[in-house]
Amino acid sequence: MNGASNTAVEVADLVKVYGSGMTAVRALKGVSLRFAAGEFAAIMGPSGSGKSTLLHVLGALEEPSSGRVVLGDTDLSGLSDRKLTLLRRARMGFVFQFFNLIPTLTAEENVLLPVLISGGRPGKYEKRLDELMSLVGLEERRTHRPDALSGGEQQRVAIARALIRHPDVILADEPTGNLDSKTGAGVLGLLRASATRYGQTVVMVTHDPRAAAVADRVVFLADGRVVDEAYGPDVDAIFERIKTLEPAG
Amino acid sequence: MKLRRFSGLSLRNLGGRMQRTLLTAVGIVLGVGIVFGVLTLSDTMSGAFKELFSRAYGAADLTVTAAGGNGPFDEEVLEEVRAVAQVESAAPRLSQAASLVLDGRDERGLPEVKSMRVFGVEPETAALATGFELAEGRYPREGAEVALDGGSAETAGAGIGERVQVGTPQGPVEMEVVGLLRIPGGSFGGVAFGMTPLPYAQEAFEKPGEITGIAVEAKGDGEVGRLAERLREELGEGFQAERSETRTAQVDAQFQGFRIALLFFAGTALFVGAFLVFNALSMTVLERTRELGMLRALGATRGMVSRSVVLEAALLGLFGSLLGLLFGYAMARGLVYLFGRAFRFEVSGVVLSPFALVSAVVVGMLITVLAALYPALRAGRVSPVEAMRTRGGGASSRSKRTSRLLPILGVVLVAVGAPWTYYLAKNLSSDLSGLVYASGIAGVVGTFLGVALVIPALVGPLAAVFAPVLRLFFGVEGRMAAANATRNRGRTALTASALMVGISLVIAFSALGGSVLGSVRSYLEDSLGSDFVVQPSNQDFDVTFSKELEEKVTDVPGVGETTGIASSFRRSGAQTNIVFGVDERYPDIFRLNLKSGDPDAFSELEDGAALVGEQLAEKRGLGVGDEVELEGLGGKKGYAIAGVVANDFLGGGTGVYVSEGTLAEDFGVDSDGFLAVKAAPGADRAAVEREIAGIVRDYPQLSLYSNAEWKAQIESDFSRQYAFFYAIMGVSVAVSAFGVVNTLSMSVFERTREIGILRAVGTTRLQVGRLIIDEGVIISLIGCLVGIAVGSLLGYLFVRGSSAGGFEVAFFYPKVPALAALLSGLLIGVFAGLLPARSAARTNIVEAVQYE
Fold first, then answer.
1. In chain A, which residues have their Cβ closer than 8 Å to the Cβ of B2?
2. I need a labelling partner for B504 at 20 to 30 A (CA). Which of A7, A26, B386, B713 fits?
3. Model's pTM, two decimal places?
4. Residue A77: HSE in the Cβ half-sphere, 13 Å Cα cutoff
């Protein structure tokens, strides 16, 4: 393919406005970013900085008010809800803060959910399932229901679910937010591995400097704009940078 | 079982939330159950009636009867019929009401009797005359011989060769059982059936030389139509020749109205059940907002998400409907029993038709799926961003915009629906066709819908009224509960509406019943001058007695006046008339209240004039000076109207009164079926009653009632019939009570965090529980109060419109039912609140406060 092939996803001049008139809130005020294939990026910023909105727009969950999102060589602007849905289905994976497993399904059924949604035959994914379950270390717990799993185990199921159909981009929203630091480290290791081993682009929103330190690159957002970027920073550097971004007081 | 496809998720969801599933299914189970029960009941009943008619009229091709009814005619007609070339054979019969005397004694020590129909037949043509087969023995040949249906023979304890007692107009006679008849289903609708030789019947029932019908068999099957034509020509206007099926079809048509009314009541239960499904699914969607958002994020389309909710509903509907069939079968048995008790009609066995089975399931599933459409649409609209939200989504802002318009629309609907109900009620007594029923029901449903739209606007004010009262009884929780009930006004209103429908039907129905009963009572007190009445024990219209009885009673010392009344049902086309033959003493006992006509219009009856009931006059646009046309023995004949009766109690407003002589001459009825007796002033009534009772004892088919006893009898008949309808309506109230449970559990679920905080700041479990129960009480009180108001209005309109019994009906307010409804509102609220309150009280404080 051409020179753009190592850019997995790109956003340009993103603006997102909620509401209208006097009560309008400008969550993104012109954000341009580019994420390479196989890159593990963390987005940080204080509350209200627009990091969640950026993730929503990146994940085609919400449409930007203006600006462009280009996934591989597909421009998402103006696509219908149905097209966006099919795009998410085929090329994106999500990991959520609250795991969002379906309580009535077993661990492996939850992992296979994207296959079921796309109308695929679960039988065809037998091998992939085995591979992922051993990757996330849950071979012994495949038929457990979510309520029989610990928080860390649930998040690992969620990561396996995000990986099952080989998405180009994995979007993670505070994946360690509800976990203690030790299990959180395990989850981050898995995200790291999917970027390194499978060449997937991982974009993670977090406010935990230790989580961000695992990433290749950290993007700092404040007040709807990108204010800084750092490549391979350590925890202390991130922590110092973040402090200056928090509103005074 | 491993999940193989996306749609499998729906089943998983149902199974995974069993408690919710069951609670939701209850509405469908009860709704489908009652619909199935009612369908089965009406299938069973119309089947029984049809069977009865087709059997009674025999396997004959045609039946010749007097035009306009089953009146007697000269037996020489038989020879005319036999003379017609296409007639293969013809069987005469004289059908008369009688009673079979049983061994038992009733509560007054009088012998128990069973209604009976006696057919006088020729021995040679007995098999053609009726459709019943001989099971044992032989047909009667001469004298006091009877072939009796097997079931009744058993009840009377008589076998072949033994004797039974049969009540006739002349008193009881003994007959020897010579044969037993086989009746399909074992019983002729609870009526005993017997065949005697024709000459014997003619003598015993005082109908010398007369018969009431001729069963005709045609030569060759294709000839029936032509033969009917031929017979009509030959016999002239006073007769009709009908195919047996025609009669059966008529019975079915008459049944249709009743069936629709029953289905309406059943339908309300299903409607309320649908509401329950709607509420529960809305709740499920709300509860699963984040899960649905996740599915959307993972690439499920809107359609897939919506379809999964619809599929869930369809499965629920199927599950509920199947369970409903079981419940409905039990219900049908109960209803058939209640029906038999209410209308004195015995049915053995329940008819299960495939139509009832299929339609109950289809309707159940359809209703469930329809109720699921809106929640499904909302599920599809859940944004994928919800998967990332930390807090559950906000309430829809859309409802606020429309809420101002809806109450206005509601008022309009009520304004249209209620007068419509009134208008149709007015026509109900004259035209019982399905269409009138259906549009009347549409009026009622429109009214309900209108009120349901207004209720959201009432929730606030009503809760504000209850709040201080609740505070008085329950302290601060009462206030908070009132505030909570108004928080989700739409849901409170929906729940209350469901309850409103059931309660208002009960109230309207008891208003109607109470008013009819009240009017009957006041009629008996004001207009009936008699002290005693003698009438058929089983209220058969055509059981009669001879003049001899009246003479004997008149001779009793202390008896002042007596008047006997004879009656005849006349049918011509769709019109039915009841014609009364009265004697000159009638106005001495019955106070005649003439709406129009000369004050002594009554004396004109002797000259062949007639008095008509007010409703009949109104319906046909008749007045004094016009003629009322009736079909009698000699064909159609007009009778000059001398007056219009305002208080036509006996005829229900549509009666025609002629002189005794006219009735005998033109309609062939010359024996009375009702005797009113007035004691002489100063006479010892107890002694008079004893004397008359002694005379009536010889006529087991008749009973003597004092006014008080008669009133009690009418009242107990009423309550038996009403119990039947209350049973059906009770189900819809029960379903709506489950709706309250559902709504309260929703409230508890939504406020988990709030309840946790309340507990954290020191609210006791008891207080939290009371908070929920109070909310339940508020919701159900709103429903019941509005229900009482709407029910009173509907009841009033119905009473005014229909003048229910046909005669003047005053509106009596159903005080006791209204009070009972209010009380049941409280009880439903408390009981519905118990389970949700328990789960609220058990809320784990720490978990609840952390609850996202």
1. 109, 122
2. B713
3. 0.72
4. 13
